[in-house]
Amino acid sequence: IQAAADEYFAKSASALTLGESAMLAALPRAPSRLNPRANREAALEGRELVLRRMSEQGLISEAERAEAAEERLVLKDRNRETPEVAPYFVEAVRRQLEEQLGSALYTEGYTIHTTLDLGAQQVAEEQLTAQLSAMEAGRFGSYVHTTYNGFHADTTRDAASETTYLQGAVVVMDARTGDVLALVGGRDYDDSEFNRATQARRQPGSAFKPFVYAAAINAGYSPAHRLIDRPLRYVMDNGQVWEPGNYDGSFSGVVSMRQALTYSKNVATVRLANEVGMSRVLGMAEQMGLGTMPSNPSVVLGTAEVTPLQLTAAYAAFATLGHRPEPRFVTRVSDRNGVVVWQQQPHTNRVIDPAVAFITTSMMQDVVDRGTGTGVRGAGFRGPAAGKTGTTQDAADVWFVGFTPELVATIWIGLDKRARILRGATGGEIAAPLWGRIMKQFPASGSGWSPPSGVEQGQVDDMGNAVAAGCTPQGATRQEFFLRGSTPMASCYSPSDYAYGDTLGYDQYSYGTWGDSLAAAPDTAGQVGDDGWWERMRRRVFERDSARVATPRPDSTPVAIPTPRRDSVRPPPAGQPIGTPVRPPARDTARPRPDSTRPPPPPPPDSVAADSSGG
């Protein structure tokens, strides 16, 4: 009681008023819920309960009860010069151990051993604060919301008012054990104890897409599988129309699965989910720890809400090639005599086939190396890395979730009350560089991921066609990964094969401005190395290809298609493996030959504008 009196009211216990004493007397019943800093209304209700009981038992008069119940609750301001270490992490530990140990947590003098890495925590806090301050200062565009400094300068606001300034969350986890090494749940614990890393459910946007592509790989599709990237219209059973669009409003005609994920193509992803089946997509997401999600087409673009901690643990299954760890904050608790009274061992579940995880990870490596996540490299991180950007349709949430073979980390930035952060905000421009700066503090080890059993390689060209040995390649070639037994038959192609209809003739550079802007100005003030990386990337992508930016073709108009069919495959129950990957569905994945008899396309219908969503 003495410690609580000093913490909340800056006075000794003997100087407490009746109302203050009653509030503290209510705390032990539910310290988390009745904490006056976290839940002022609940604390006042607890005070009222204690006062009423005291009156009923004759310990105070009814007049004293009424006077104390009307007493204004004035809490002590915390000393901002000496902030607590990792307050959101500590609170998460306290909540967990209160459930395990009850009131003994506060009376038995336990020693608590946690997973916290103080160095990583300090870097995460400093880098997040710096990025949010830069955004409020206008470095990424005009910022119109309340700033952190403006919030604290407002003398008219209530002390318990909700924060209206920009918030963020960071989670850094050991992908193999689930140990949470750093956790930032908000910008200022004194202002708000709400933990956005563990409690805030937000739309992940395109950070959800890897689960769509993992489901496709598991179903037998390959990264070379080609998808149509043209305007699309869904006419639902209730008559509503949904028209997904790419972030920049342009279309590329045809893209491979690898290109669609690398450059975060929304329409191609929706088409892929329709081919694979929504039940398979939702089953994969649930199996990897994201819970049950609504079965509607937009969910593949990240409209179902998740917490940053959930997303971090799910991505860890890609980093480990199959095993999702349970997040761990505490390793053990010992008493005054050193006897361990509670402990938690690392625990993982096999949630995805290693070959499927590896192929999906290889595509996410391209996101970092040449796609929407290149801000990671621009920030100076050079180690092996994979990940995915996320931007919601209204730019209210920006994400980057990335991983190395050892670590996985998540960045989220947004406002507590959902609103557009600033015009053009993207995960690639804002969150990916922040991830790179934080992860630079961890020494890189190894060269990345090695193909596990069940993966084979084949040479493919820009359009994903397998190239036979001895053939003259048409354009650049690369090694592609396939599930064993699914590598397409290789053959030689002539230039005429690349000019047939609207499914050919597009190469990997014909994308215009991609969803998470690579063209945005890089960070300055020492945040980017002096090796000229950004300038070389601009020249390679934007100057060299400025004459070849794809624009919608005359026939690239919306196509009315029915609501996705009900897939006969049900999601597996929680805790059960997705299953062995299957061979690709029977289809001809090669290009049409010059003598193809395919009929010409029908006349295009009236053009309909497509909405942007999830970059």
Description:
There is one protein chain. The chain is built from 17 helices and 17 strands. The chain is of the alpha+beta class and 615 residues long. Strands 3-2-14-13-12 form a 5-stranded antiparallel sheet, with helices on both faces. The longest helix has 19 residues. The chain is elongated and about 95 Å long. The C terminus is likely disordered.
Any idea what the shape is? elongated
Low-pLDDT runs of 5+ residues are: 498-577, 583-613
The biggest beta sheet is recorded as:
5 strands, antiparallel
Q: Termini separation (Å)?
A: 51 Å
**What proportion strand?**
5-15%
Number of strands: 17
- Overall mean pLDDT stands at 81
Which structural class should the secondary elements be placed in?
alpha+beta
Count of DSSP H/I helices: 17
What is the radius of gyration computed over CA atoms, rounded to a whole number of angstroms? 27 Å
Order of the strands making up the biggest sheet: 3-2-14-13-12
Q: Concise description?
A:
This protein has 615 residues and is α+β, with helices and mostly antiparallel strands.
